[in-house]
Amino acid sequence: MLLGACSGPQSALDPAGREASEVALLFWVMLVGAAIIWLVVIGAAMFGGKWQKQPLSERAGLRIVLYGGAVIPTIVLAALLVFGLRLMPMLRAGEPELRITMSGEQYWWRVTYAAPDGSKVESANELRLPAGRAAEITLDSVDVIHSFWIPSLAGKMDMIPGRTNRLVLHPERTGIYRGVCAEFCGRSHAFMAFPVVVMEPAAFEAWLAREAAPALSKADNGAFLANGCGGCHTVRGTQATGSIGPDLTHFADRQSIGAGILPNTPDNRRRFIAETETLKPGVRMPSFGALPPAELGAIAAYLGSLE
Amino acid sequence: MLFRSETPNLWTLLAPPTVWALHFLFCYVAGAIICAKAPEALDELRLAIAAATILALVFIVVAGMQAHRHWGFGSDMPPHDTPTDEDQQHFLGLATMLLCALSAVAVIFGAMPALFIAECMR
Ligand SMILES: [Cu+2]
């Protein structure tokens, strides 16, 4: 039980990327170092209290204060400082092979990939990365401060309105990880997460080409359009061109619904539309629970067809 | 007044931390200006910080040597708390010497990032 947080999709102690490995190494170095210092200090206290019967001379005492209290701590701090400073430039090293913009919005993530041909590919609420390649993530926000954190891949970086921050990720192991918003941003802050899918580079390129294409769905989108979903959501290749909410062009391909809160299953698609405001308090999408069940079903089915 | 002074005073006591403060300000203000106006001049910035660091350390070492002398080269141990001129001298000398050590370490720590930064963050 105690070790429950030490592995899995959202653990900084189970790194899957270069930055996170460095952070984990730093953590272990500090932990072991702190344990050694603690043992020495407690050991000295026990020694002084139990075995050392004669008081030390004043000179010897002052010497212990000088070395134990000033010289050794200074050396340890200097070593840690060098160790930490050395990490920082490495975190941005290397020319990125992929550029992605992520923007935080209460309470979801707008994701834009720069395709190899220079065009932009709109997506949302999920980040896909090729393993073994450097990816530069440009971070900003449109409303309040959010913070972008994928513990398995790297340390966190704030998303600040009016300022653009840069983070370079070097994912190394394929798998599905979890990113979160790490800065309190409102009532549904805790429901602002996203899956991170690290793929083989070839699979990633195929996926990006698919993601760039317009929607292929042949399903009926009448109910979707009639209820005004298209006023806030874009489904490329259809009349839905809104940009207030997440792009839904290939929504069925995503791992999760509503910024990481529910697995993307048929039942959950229906539930998210019907109970939006219950699932995510303060969300900028109205609940459509009042719609007739047949219509809800038609919309959910359409969403499920958006591969 | 600061150097070659026969007796320590509050100015000689405050000088080393003041040098630390000025050095700190210089590093960060110069860093901010270079990164905002001329990010390609990082190497020059590094040199300037190195020069400022050497200058500050020389000053602090000289001040420390003077404080060591005021302390009477450790002829007696603290606490220097009898109301005599000699004890006042020894107290100020020792306090200044300790502040010199602290300031020297702080100056070195403050300059260290200049060795490692690779670029101005955009
Ligand atoms: Cu947030």
Count the domains of chain A.
3
Spell the H/E element sequence of chain B.
HHH
How would you state the average pLDDT of chain B, rounded?
A: 88
Q: Kindly, what is the distance between the CA atoms of the first and last residues of chain A, rounded to a whole number of angstroms?
A: 38 Å
The H-and-E topology of chain A, N to C, reads as HHEEEEEEEEEEHHEEHHH
The stretches of 5 or more residues of chain B where confidence is low (pLDDT under 50) are none
Small molecules (ligands, ions, cofactors) in the structure: copper (II) ion
The most extensive contact between chains is: A-B, 17 and 14 residues
Strand content of chain A: 15-25%
Helix count from the secondary structure assignment of chain B: 3
CATH-assigned fold name of the largest domain in chain A: Immunoglobulin-like
Percent range of helical residues of chain B:
over 70%
Structural class of chain A: alpha+beta
The biggest sheet of chain A amounts to: 5 strands, mixed
What does this structure look like?
The complex is a heterodimer of chains A (307) and B (122). Chain A has 307 residues and is of the alpha+beta class. Chain A folds into three domains: 18-91; 98-211, Cupredoxins -  blue copper proteins (Immunoglobulin-like, Sandwich); 222-304, Sandwich (Immunoglobulin-like), CATH 2.60.40. Helices cover 36% and strands 20% of the residues of chain A. Chain A has a five-stranded mixed beta sheet. Chain A has a five-stranded mixed beta sheet with strand order 4-10-9-6-7, covered by helices on one side. Chain B has 122 residues and is mainly alpha-helical. Chain B has one domain. Chain B has three helices and no strands. Chain B has helices at 10-37, 42-70, 85-116. In chain B, helix 1 runs antiparallel to helix 2 and helix 2 runs antiparallel to helix 3. The mean pLDDT of chain B is 88. Chain A binds chain B through residues 58-59, 62, 70, 74, 77-78, 81-82, 85-86, 88-89, 92-93, 164, 166, and chain B through 77, 101, 105, 108-109, 112-113, 115-119, 121-122.
